[in-house]
Amino acid sequence: QVQLVESGGGLVQPGGSLRLSCAASGRTFSTWYMGWFRQAPGKEREFVAAISWSAGITNYADSVKGRFTISRDNTKNTVYLQMNSLKPEDTAVYYCAADNRYVSVLRGAAGYWGQGTQVTVSS
Question: What are the percentages of helix, strand and coil residues in the chain, rounded to 5?
Answer without folding.
Answer: 10, 50, 40
